[in-house]
Write a structure and sequence with these properties.
This protein has a domain of 32 residues. It is built from two helices and no strands.
Amino acid sequence: MRKSYDFSKSVQNPYAKRLKKQITIRIDEETISYFKTMANEKGIPYQSLINLYLRDCASKHRELELKWAS
């Protein structure tokens, strides 16, 4: 490694706005199993599949229909 580096000509990362943020979320085992199975079929990591699903829901402004048992 060099003792010093010249960053005077560096540019800001153009993809910085698209970087992902790590969060903690509680998901039941059945839902995780569902996404893991689907992810294996598609050949992608299950967390990426969950992110794609949530992104699709957000882009289409889908709203959850809550129906509580009475």
